[in-house]
Fold these 2 entries.
Entry 1:
Amino acid sequence: MRTVRILKKHRVRRWGIVLSAMLMSSILLAACGESSPSILNPQGPVANQESNLFWFILIVATIVFVIVEGLLIYSIVRFRERPNMPLPRQVHGNNTLEIAWTIGPSVFLFAVLIATIYTMFNLGNISNNSPIGQLEIRVVGHQWWWEFDYTNTNPQIITADELVVPQGTLIHTLLKSDNVIHSFWVPQVTGKTDVVPGHNNDKLFRADTPGTYRGLCTEYCGLNHAHMSFNLIVKTPSDYMTWLSGQEKAAQTPTDPAAVAGMKLFTGSGGCFACHGIVGVNLNSYTDPKAAGLVGPNLTHFGSRRIIAGEVLEWDPGSCKVVTDSSGNASIQNPDGCGLYQWLKDPRGIKPENDMVIRQLSPTEIAQLIAYLESLT
Ligand code: CUA
């Protein structure tokens, strides 16, 4: 009696563990759903084709799984050992069976092969099926942030962290790196392509729905590989043209006293201009030859962006309010809630081993720099 009770208790506990594990994993997976971009929610023809292929292969794999596991379970139950059972019938060398389990899997694999080749050809045809003209963008992988050079806009523009494209336009990206191998991936729009030093890959895609889609680096590229994300921002053609004409302009000279002081910090001795370019300040244009020697992102329109250094932090002017007291000293109302403040205070503490070296700035200096950066819209 006692043994039965202990066994029952064990069984209850085992089911308890199994159920809680299932519950935990579904909670974890649900948590992924919100913030992670999914290939199963495609927003353009390339990702669409890729997700169709995924579903096809999943169906084939499910059929194989059900057949194999079904036969396995049937055999385990039907042919289990019973007392005084004779040796079961031996099927070794049965030609029918040998041929069946050679041809069966081949048929499934052939179906997957055909579907894959069909998808590859369709992806190659995407340029024929895209109505609006092609935009060419050189994507440069840095350790650890993304640079986007619009090479066939007139004039050329350069941005970082945010890749802004018009809806429905074929985008031709040229993928370039001068350091290590990265990999460019926007799950909802296009698959992964490696960004290899000395070997420029390229990639065509189109995004059909306006919105913001997260992009990732998907090849391990050093300590901060996980902090090398970007946003693909898809705009309607008219919103895109408004954005583009804003980006083409040189930076405006600020008038607000705090921002003027911030600009002086940027251009002063030991200032940010040693690594960062701003058109109209230390660069004559985006294609100024001086730009080639700058290791940091181009900041000409930093105020229009919302993420910092490969999305290690987000920021927005609303949470970085600059206030000036009666004696003219600028400060940030809530430094802890301002990503840009945290970044300028200690960029290497936030993102170890990144290239941004900065002297210790006072809270006032940080507020002045933020006022200036916010003015660069
Ligand atoms: Cu760049 Cu991983």
Entry 2:
Amino acid sequence: MSTREDIIVSDDEMTRQEAFMHSVREMNPEADKKYTISTYGCQMNENDSEKLAGMLESMGYKHTDELEESDLILFNTCCVRENAELKVYGHLGSLKALKARRPDMIIAVCGCMMQQKDVVQHILKKYKHVDLIFGTHNMHRFPELLYQALNTDAAVADVSASEGYIAEGIPIKREHGVKAWLTIMYGCNNFCSYCIVPYVRGRERSRRISDIIDEAKLLGHQGYKEITLLGQNVNSYGLDLNDGTSFSKLLRGLEDAEGIERIRFMTSHPKDLSDDLIYAMRDCSKVCGHLHLPVQAGSNRILHEMNRKYTREHYFDLVNRIREQIPDISLTTDIIVGFPGESDEDFEQTLDLIRRVRYDYAYTFLYSKRTGTPAAKKSEQVSEEIKKARFDALLELQNSISREINSTLAGKQLEILVEGRSKNNISMMTGRTRTNKIVNFKGETGLTGRLATVKIEKTGTWSLDGSLV
Ligand code: SAH
Ligand code: SF4
Ligand code: F3S
């Protein structure tokens, strides 16, 4: 039986990192140094950035949004699509002049991009103003690496090639006060043929169920109302523990986390979504009626080429089984257009699937060639022009479906969790329904963190307007 001790960072090592935190703090006696973190990519990166912020605050650094006044600028990077990488290079380049004016400033780059050797070499060669580089597998060593970077003029680069650890007990400074990310597992075993994540995040490693439940209870105690469980494929949570732990058991185990009103999770891989999980979603009162179930493509030929390990028929069957048990569930998805060799007929199958499933929302991506993945080697790459045309057609179809589904909510009374003032219009408050739809309404700031009932008055493609009942 697997104990998790094999890959959990030892208490001794965590104590060693605490000592480095202490040493960095001593170099900052007034605790007046400032930091900026720019985060790219998925929610797991956002959760990692909250831990990096937590470590920095423990070292006496304060957050700022102003690059000019920062003593440390950290980029937590993503490489899932080329665009994400280009943005990082652009921002790094633009810091050269600032670093020349403020040589004591530390510029650090971490995250998924740094798990690629050629990227690290490129940065070391072309962006000489970067002081510190580390990857995703050794994030817990940030205090030690920062200490080194503060005490040398040379660039510090530590990109561990290992399969990665699980570090428990890293200090954390969360972005929101109402809802919290909770990473339950790291890595991915699926090797979808277009995707770089398994190469940069390593194999699946599940946290101990007791550590997750303890964290959820602590969050409830601290006043958080909603948790979102994170993993590249949460459906396979626990399999590597070899002790019968499963995702549905975890969901059931989280039901009595006091104070937590809502539980969400992402992402679910259709090949691993079991009836057990559907029943757990149905039975657990805190688990919200929303499922993000990326389909990626609607053609069986492309699904096979993508190494997704399911067919459209299997997917339809799954959606039917879910809707049978949880009729009001909202469904969202990810779709890639322009996978190598995708023909007009293949794309038509994707549109057809969208018309049949009728998602509440779909995240659509232009296929991006990622060096090192099997799909990048395929000769029949689709032209940018065709990709763009398919993207636009898909968006138009999906938007009309989203609008139609949302319009059926007009006049209904729905429970929302109030998240605070709307960023787009500060005269309005904003919250989400259990199905994850944004509702804007007029109300007091003091409602933040409360469950409220709103009557839906106006519906749009991406959000709803309502009034308190
Ligand atoms: N583990 C999750 C999400 C991973 S990344 C899952 O399996 O669903 C988020 C999304 O990015 C993916 O669902 C996919 O739609 C998209 N994506 C991944 N690699 C891509 C690539 N090379 N080009 C375009 N989109 C990509
Ligand atoms: Fe990438 Fe597929 Fe893993 Fe998702 S399941 S992270 S798309 S390899
Ligand atoms: Fe990007 Fe890494 Fe997430 S590649 S999508 S930040 S796991």
